[in-house]
């Protein structure tokens, strides 16, 4: 069913703002929004959409909004608890989760428990809590719709064939700003270089993840949970133009692809209107746009986050949480200029040495505890790396 009432966690981010740019034209009522620290934008959004709830996670932002939103009648919430209250109590039928990082996991689970459908941009939710989330989705009978462009593409290629099992999935990767460069060249790249993505404009964390290919590793694990496929069934292919958003191969060797100019509003809108399609603000594809499509294999020796995620996917259990936690910590350090670009891959690979990752039977508490351990280990390892320089 197309969404009627929507709550958006992470409404001040790249996906969040693009979502809000669509809801009016789609006739969707916005019931709740949240941000971390960007109170000015949250205030603007609150004034424009007048949602029931507004949540600021960071304390300073909350204090600012207490004064600014007083006349609006919006209920102001604070912190992680505020996100949980929105997820479990607001009147929306669907929660679009575009928070960044593992912070998105608990609200996703709470919204599923409350019987809401989920439009999921926050891939870290599935990377860390895939088993819990997919089980809860089955038990509560809600829908889990992908927003990530590749996963939306796969989902679109599966339409009409959901009773068939895909033979393989071609998961496309832009390759990021450093494709084709070797380790020597990457030793000195700056944060500004890493933040220059060739095809997409996104939040800082995912932009760095795209440059390291960690993003593709996370997306491999995301695809495994969304489409019940093994890591061997997912073929990662570098496609520099980001026109083919992914492809599905069936038993008879037919391969179905979804194409379009890179624009996140398309996958966001499909998650909101599914199973329908509506006119969108996206630019139509042209012949020139398709005239030079290339596909290559990724360089796993240079971009070590990818093989680390592939190993984590093969191990299963808590291994994806370990690489994800280490990466979140490493990207933070990288953005602060405390480690080099190549260190991120080494830190992520090192996380797989944590003990007990193979466990299959674990709780939310175990995931959060392991996430903390992985972050600590990553910080220690980063200090050792800078000591060596
Ligand atoms: P942004 O950094 O642009 O936005 C993140 C949002 O989450 C902001 O609203 C931010 O608030 C909020 N936020 C940050 N930290 C926390 C926290 N600890 N708790 C709660 N809220 C927090 O990221 P993107 O929109 O680019 O990405 C969001 C998610 O979607 C990520 O998981 C990403 O991997 C995924 N995704 C993004 C795509 C894209 O094109 N951008 C494509 C596919 C997937 P504030 O701004 O106020 O600080
Ligand atoms: Mg993607």
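Q: What amino acid sequence fits the structure above?
A:
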């Amino acid at each position: 069913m197309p969404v009627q009432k929507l709550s958006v966690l992470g409404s001040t981010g790249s996906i969040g703002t693009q979502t809000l740019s669509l809801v009016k034209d789609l006739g969707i009522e916005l019931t709740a929004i949240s941000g971390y620290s960007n109170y000015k934008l949250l205030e603007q959004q609150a004034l424009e959409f007048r949602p029931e709830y507004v949540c600021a996670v960071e304390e300073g932002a909350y204090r600012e909004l207490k004064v600014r939103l007083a006349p609006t009648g919006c209920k102001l919430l604070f912190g992680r608890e505020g996100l949980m209250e929105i997820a479990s109590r607001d009147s929306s039928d669907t929660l679009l989760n575009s928070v960044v990082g593992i912070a998105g996991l608990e609200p996703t689970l709470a919204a599923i428990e409350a019987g809401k459908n989920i439009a999921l941009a926050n891939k870290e939710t599935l990377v860390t809590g895939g088993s819990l989330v997919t089980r809860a989705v089955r038990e509560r009978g809600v829908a889990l719709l992908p927003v990530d462009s590749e996963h939306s593409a796969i989902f679109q290629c599966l339409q009409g064939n959901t009773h068939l099992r895909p033979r393989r999935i071609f998961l496309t990767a832009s390759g990021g700003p450093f494709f084709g460069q070797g380790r020597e060249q990457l030793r000195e790249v700056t944060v500004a270089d890493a933040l220059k993505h060739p095809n997409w404009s996104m939040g800082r964390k995912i932009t760095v993840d795209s440059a390291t290919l960690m993003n593709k590793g996370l997306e491999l694990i995301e695809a495994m949970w969304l489409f019940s496929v093994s890591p061997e069934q997912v073929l990662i292919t570098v496609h520099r133009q980001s026109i083919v958003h992914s492809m599905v191969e069936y038993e008879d060797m037919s391969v179905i692809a979804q194409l379009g100019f890179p624009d996140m509003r398309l996958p966001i809108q499909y998650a909101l209107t599914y199973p329908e399609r509506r006119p969108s603000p996206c630019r139509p594809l042209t012949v020139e746009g398709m005239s030079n499509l290339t596909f290559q294999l990724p360089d796993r020796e240079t971009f070590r986050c990818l093989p680390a995620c592939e190993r984590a996917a093969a191990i299963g259990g808590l291994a994806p949480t370990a690489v994800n936690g280490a990466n979140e910590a490493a990207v933070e350090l990288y953005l602060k200029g405390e480690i080099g670009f190549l260190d991120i891959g080494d830190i992520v690979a090192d996380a797989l040495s944590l003990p007990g990752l193979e466990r299959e039977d674990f709780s939310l508490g175990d995931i959060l505890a392991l996430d903390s351990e992985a972050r600590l280990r990553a910080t220690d390892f980063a200090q050792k790396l800078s000591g060596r320089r």
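Q: And what stands out in the fold?
A: The CA atoms of residues 247 and 257 lie 4 Å apart.
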